[in-house]
Amino acid sequence: MDKKLSALVSLLVALSFLLAACAPATAPASPAAPAAPAGATTAPAAPATGEKVTLRTLIHQNPPMVAYMEEFNKKFQEKYPNITVDQSVVNANDLSTVSQTRLTANDVDVLDIFGFANAAQPYMKKADAPNWQTLIDAGLLMDISDQPFVKNYDPAAIKDAGTYNGKVYQTNLGRVSYSGIYYNKDLFKANNVKVPTTWDELVAACAAFKKANIPCMTAGGKDGWPIFVGAYGLIGAEYPDQAKLVQGLWDGSIKWNDAKSLDMWNKMKVYAQDMMEAGASGIAGDAAPGRFASGAVAMFPGGTWYASAIDAAKPAFEWGYIPWPGSNNAADNKNLFGKYDQGWAIAAKTPNKDAAIKYLTEFSDPANYQAFANAVGFIPTQPGATLNTQIGKEVAPFLSNFRVGYEQYWVAPKGAGQYANPYASYYKPFGTYDDPQTLADKVQADLQSGLDAVK
Amino acid sequence: MTSYLFGHGRSRWLPYLFLLPGVFFYLLISLGPSLATTVFSFTDATGIAGAPVHFVGLDNYKEFLFMGQGSADNYDALWRTLKFCFFVTTIQFSLGLLLAVLLNQRLKGTALFRTLYFMPAILGVVILGLIWTLFLYPLGGPASRLLGVFGLSSEFLGGPPTEAFAWVIVVQIWANVGITMVIFIAGLQTISAELYEAGRIDGAGSWQIFRNVTWPLLTPSVNTNLLLNIIGSLQAWTLFMVLLGYRNGTQVLGYTIFAQGFGQTSGSVTSAFRQGYAAAASIVLFFLVLVIGLTTQTILRRREARIIG
């Protein structure tokens, strides 16, 4: 009898395990369903007004922007007490990966997405579609063409950075320049150094600071990209039309080891080895503005988005911002290269569509947008917004020369090696190269390998 | 040796019933996704729900193994993976054994030291990354100051790829030597004290006792540790992501697969989502681990049978 009872109990326990394994605890993750038409919203009906909603938002780490969003979220929740904003912040390097996984899992409502760029051009053979296009084609981003808040934005910005196949999928929040240099006005004055307008003047300025035991430049080398992005102005000095540069690289009319490019590589070596301070590779991207604002370093090559962080680190700090003087002709050094930075998109399958639209409507209100632009230092994409900030004043003389940069056009051919990019970080101490010709040949060889593979 | 039969009647099939949940979980969580990965490796899947998926045959494998400089970079990543495995396994194994022998003695404080050496194993990759990033901060971190005392300096994790790679090996060993040590301690404690006593009575010295008594009887622990170290280090990549990011000259195969599958961002440019391609790369890594793992296991089993019987 005991044996029978224990066998029965054992059987019941085993069966309960099986049933627990089979019964889904939550709704099953949706398999690869047939693609809905792009922008079609098949989400369940939004909760009735007054019903409590948790709006899940995703942004990337940019301290002034995060600080602004926290304040904005507070005010938004006060205005809409039934909506709780659950904001996630990820490192910029991880934004794309996290966006993909959370959109696929339908675990996000409103997300921060970089301006549409890197679209495959007709001359690019066998190029993969960029991520944002893949997300749209899979029906994961909502078509917001008819939303009233879209009209608050500059139509050109909407067209260039948020439109695909005639429909709007994101409202881009601003342009940034990444090809300028912040400089410490006090250090320049104290050491009698002229603000450089040409390459030779920049080299001389750095030499003067080094003589005074002052590091010339700093950057957030630990994150990798601040080193090579900091030198994008040097690409611009040789190739002001960067859409043509990219096409030339693909069709072979421009090579990374031709005479013009070699001049660029020579200057990048000086930048990486003589201008950048020792130990920059250990500075995190977020920490670099603070390092500059501490007054320890004369210059800080970087994007306009750092301005707020510099001011926050030390409000009384006197700084200026100049385009990279990569050429010895001062007239060539008046361009600002950059990109359309972050924008807002709504997940197509969000169950909180009303709340998401309210959120973006509130954000896009001109007063709120102006406050955002002031906080983060973006070049505004709303016609009524102005550059009321220090960075706005610094870039205003050069805005008419704003150009979209190489990074926003480039798509690497399949089979290209990992060095097929114009990155100053390939040089020691950040990389392994020392000789400009050797590096130039390697970069071109890596690129050519891909071009040959897709012929 | 008598083989145990599970009785008769329902006693015979009952154990298999208890095994069923485990088998089911294995199919669901391990074998199932592995088969799905194999299937995806022959497609252009992006991994995004709703995106069209097309069969591309062996294109992904051809691209990974034979296409241009890109595939040469993949072989470099493969070579680095093997180097990482070799150094981590040999050093971690040796250090773990040394620590186990030292801490298996009845001395004051051994329990404390065992805990201290094991603690990094429970910390998690992100915490490890934070600790070591701070420790190796080149502008005034503890390691930098220590080098400064001798008039030296280093960029550590931001330095030349070889040095950065070496530091990841150091951190990997630091994080996992505790596990190796614990497994060896468990093995040492199964060795009867009488055997040591007998050896001492026969006049054997410490090294002779270790070589002729301890080492052979530690064979099961040796085998376990070697297999765990080899397979674990072949698949390790998260520490690279946390400590170095996707730096040229430092990537291992696991990280390459992750970057290809989920998009690696550089500046504001993100590589496309290519989970079909990443699936093909992971199948290549799987076969690498399978070949090395099976070979190691076969050699170790034969050794164990020869020594212990």
Number of strands of chain B: 2
The CATH class of the largest domain in chain A, by name, is: Alpha Beta
CATH domain class name of chain B: Mainly Alpha
| Number of alpha- plus pi-helical segments of chain B | 13
* Low-confidence spans of chain A: 16-48
First-to-last CA distance of chain A: 79 Å
Count of helical regions of chain A: 17
**Broad shape of chain A:** globular
Distance separating the two termini of chain B: 12 Å
Order of helices and strands of chain A: HEHEHEHHEEEEEHHHHHHHEHEEEHHHEH
CATH superfamily of the largest domain in chain A: Periplasmic binding protein-like II
Q: What is the gyration radius of chain B calculated from CA atoms?
A: 24 Å
Order of helices and strands of chain B: HHHHHHHHHHHHEEH
Mean of the pLDDT scores of chain B? 89
The portion of residues assigned to helices of chain B is: over 70%
Taking all Cα atoms into account, the compactness measure Rg of chain A is 25 Å
CATH architecture of chain B, by name, is Orthogonal Bundle
Largest sheet of chain A: 5 strands, mixed
The stretches of 5 or more residues of chain B where confidence is low (pLDDT under 50) are none
- Side by side, the strands of the main sheet of chain B go 1-2
- Kindly report the greatest chain-chain contact and the residue count on each side: A-B, 75 and 57 residues
What descriptors fit this protein?
heterodimer, A: 455 residues, alpha/beta, D-Maltodextrin-Binding Protein, domain 2, 2 domains, five-stranded mixed sheet, three-stranded mixed sheet, 13 strands, 40% helix, 13% strand, globular, B: 309 residues, mainly alpha, MetI-like fold, two-stranded antiparallel ribbon
